[in-house]
């Protein structure tokens, strides 16, 4: 015994059978018939009428009630007899369990679960490299491009779940190839999250590019402004730089800004409001420190700074003692004077600044016998970018970060290392360039310690000179230390 289902299609639409997720429902192409216009004369009159207007995207498998049309579509005109549409007639086994909703999200999920990686489109030499357990950066990028292009043949607005499914399939096929490792071959992770991010970023780029070409009538972004935008987001994940704001978070924002980090909802609200935070920080006229403190004071709290940085860059904060020690070995090899009483990170910065002939004092300000509450001392700082401050009160040191002649923290930080990590994160979180006099030193930290190599844009104010010097030193560290 079977039940018949009527599906309304807009003129010109096509329908193809899809297997239902429920084991109790089977839609077979052999049981599908398309009714012609003459067939429908028995149902509706020949009087032309306006098209049905769909209210949702769910297909209802009807039960005993005959309210399918009323539930799913607006019926224009005075009565049903004014309607005329194309129909599909489905026959399914009669079963009480068929009286349920099959959402298009289930159909979408089925599509991506069944997605096959297009191995035939990947060049043979790349597959051979995968089989041998090693591919270079160029080959990896090309594979990502091939996968995304094939996925976009199904849908351009690809859900994150689809990327996870595809990334998992690829990593499971070649687990050794996509491992995250450091320069010494130490395994840092399976590589799933890295591959997922690359797939997302590629599709985001294609969608943004397509949107721009489709809006050719709008004024083009001036080259100078475009360059500034690229510099502001250099080192950040493209998909995390300016995510879409999908809902109003005014209430959550108010709660978050007045909430202690010990509150169990703190990190949940921090995550929920992230798109709105980015919308505020990436506006065409970047917010000042005063505006940030007024609108989003939570972004100046240490834990929030670190969380925001990790999400934005998809990189860990700068804890990498092994690479710090390599730089120290290089400094000793070059017979630099090193103060063993200083913290490791400060010694590393001194070694790098000496090597690049930069002035660390223009980034790290030390004040003797000056109270941290004395804000007038900040007027002596000539630059507005984030800088480090040391207050030395009779041997007791407190560190802080200043931006636009304002202290980030009311209480300060107990160590130079913590203050530096916070300061470095702010360059990315707030889209700020490195101070000119330490541009190369900080770019070395970005590229070597953080392993972050932006494809476009730079936070250095020296641009090519900094990049060239940084790559040269990285090569020396690799070959001589």
Give descriptors for this structure.
single chain, 481 residues, alpha+beta, 4-stranded mixed beta sheet, 3-stranded antiparallel beta sheet, 19 helices
Give a written overview of the molecule.
Helix 5 (137-152) crosses helix 7 (192-214) and helix 15 (321-333) packs across helix 16 (344-355). By secondary structure, this protein is an alpha+beta fold. Among the domains are: 2-111, no CATH class; 115-220, no CATH class; 236-313, no CATH class. The relative contact order is 0.07. The longest helix has 23 residues, at 192-214. The strands form five sheets. A four-stranded mixed sheet has the order 10-11-12-13, covered by helices on one side. It has a three-stranded antiparallel sheet with strand order 1-6-2, with no helix packed on it. It has a two-stranded antiparallel sheet with strand order 3-5. The model is unreliable at 18-108 and 212-219 (pLDDT under 50). It is built from 19 helices and 13 strands. Helix content is 42%, strand content 11%.
